[in-house]
Design a protein that fits this description.
A hairpin with a 2-residue loop joins strand 16 and strand 17 (276-282). It contains 10 helices and 18 strands. It is globular, with a radius of gyration of 22 Å. It has helices at 15-26, 56-60, 95-103, 126-131, 172-183, 208-211, 216-222, 240-247, 255-258, 299-304, and strands spanning 3-9, 31-33, 42-49, 64-72, 74-76, 85-88, 107-111, 120-121, 124-125, 141-154, 159-166, 187-197, 200-201, 206-207, 235-237, 268-273, 276-282, 291-295. It has 3 domains: 3-62 and 199-228, Pseudouridine synthase, CATH 3.30.2350.10; 64-194, Pseudouridine synthase (2-Layer Sandwich); 232-304, Archaeosine Trna-guanine Transglycosylase, Chain: A, domain 4 (Roll), CATH 2.30.130. The longest helix is centred in the N-terminal third of the chain and has 12 residues, at 15-26. Strands 1, 2, 3, 4, 7, 10, 11, 12, 13 and 14 form a 10-stranded mixed β-sheet that branches. It starts with a strand and ends with a helix. By secondary structure, the chain is α+β, with helices and mostly antiparallel strands.
Length: 305
């Protein structure tokens, strides 16, 4: 069972809980998710099974899209509505001021990871320190907000719903917190749904409840192929000799095969031998030549097909 299952994570459980349930249902050890969702958040959580676990690092680095509700006039220790509210009753801004503050976040931003997060400092997770009442200085990290679309705005209640597309590692609750700081009234995230993770969207997500009713054959049929997230990349075909070299980890010059590739969108490309997806290549190898970047199918794997 090798592929990617696009799971719709429900509220009230961690991403690791989802993986544990799938491990029990499939009786497979090699399973991993591709980007943590907070326990109260819902939405798209691609989970890799079997040989697909080799691409977790690539899927985790993809842009994410969210639908968020933000409540103004409050501050909490977790930067969301489920934490301890430490300030409330802040003066609500005008709709114009709110729009300006929110849209000013589009582009490159610097985010300080929240104390209630799994970021490690000195070998300890920040949330462990936070639970002990310890707050430490954290280094700001560069993140990208690709776009923000305001869906609704209740000026009287101070509630705004918006869509946001962002780079990996972006904390949406911190985005809300920073908007509240900019406005001077405070803000917390009050709901969050991930609507897309790379090429995986709500439209092709399967609820965990539905998956729990499926047998192993049905789950296998619902898997996306390992190369599905990379279909937007150009591809090359190699012959059996070159394919065998690549699958056995032998450095191979792919210059001739990649000369016709479009280099405008990405430096990465897919490598196939017939219908077998061997791996990902990059046009910028250490010596300036295109090389194999990530081997997804080894010689032994190929023998099993």
């Amino acid at each position: 069972m090798n592929g990617i299952l696009n799971v719709y994570k429900p509220a009230g459980m961690t991403s690791h809980d989802v993986v544990a349930i799938l491990r029990r249902l499939t009786r497979m050890k090699r399973i991993g998710h591709t980007g943590t969702l907070d326990p109260m958040a819902t939405g798209v959580l691609p989970v890799c099974l079997g040989k697909a676990t080799r691409i977790v690092e690539f899927l985790s680095s993809e842009d994410k899209a969210y639908r968020c509700t933000m409540s103004l006039g409050k501050v909490s220790d977790t930067q969301d509505i489920w934490g301890e509210v430490t300030l409330s009753g802040g003066q609500l801004p005008t709709a114009e001021a709110l729009r300006e503050a929110l849209m000013s976040m589009v582009g490159e931003i610097r985010q300080i990871p929240p104390m209630y997060s799994a970021v490690k400092v000195g070998g300890r997770k920040l949330y462990e320190l936070a639970r002990e009442g310890i707050e430490i200085e954290r280094e700001a990290r560069i993140r990208w907000i690709r776009s923000i679309e305001i869906l609704s705005l209740d000026e009287n209640q101070g509630i705004v719903e918006f869509n946001v597309v962002c780079s990996k590692g972006t904390y949406i609750r911190t985005l809300c917190h920073d908007v509240g700081l900019r406005l001077g009234c405070g803000a917390v995230m009050s709901s969050l749904e991930r609507t897309a993770s790379g090429t995986f969207t709500l439209e092709n997500a399967i609820t965990l409840e539905a998956i729990e009713t499926m047998d192993k054959a049905a789950i296998k049929a619902a898997l996306h192929s390992i190369d599905a997230p990379f279909r937007h990349l150009p591809s090359i075909q190699v012959d059996e000799r070159v394919g065998r070299l690549l699958m056995n980890g032998v450095k191979t010059d792919l210059t001739r095969l990649t000369q016709s590739l479009d280099r405008t969108d990405s430096d990465q490309f897919r490598i196939y031998q017939g219908s077998v997806f061997i791996g990902l290549g990059t046009l910028k190898g250490p010596d300036g030549k295109p090389v194999l970047e990530k081997l997804l199918m080894s010689g032994d794997d190929h023998a099993d097909i």
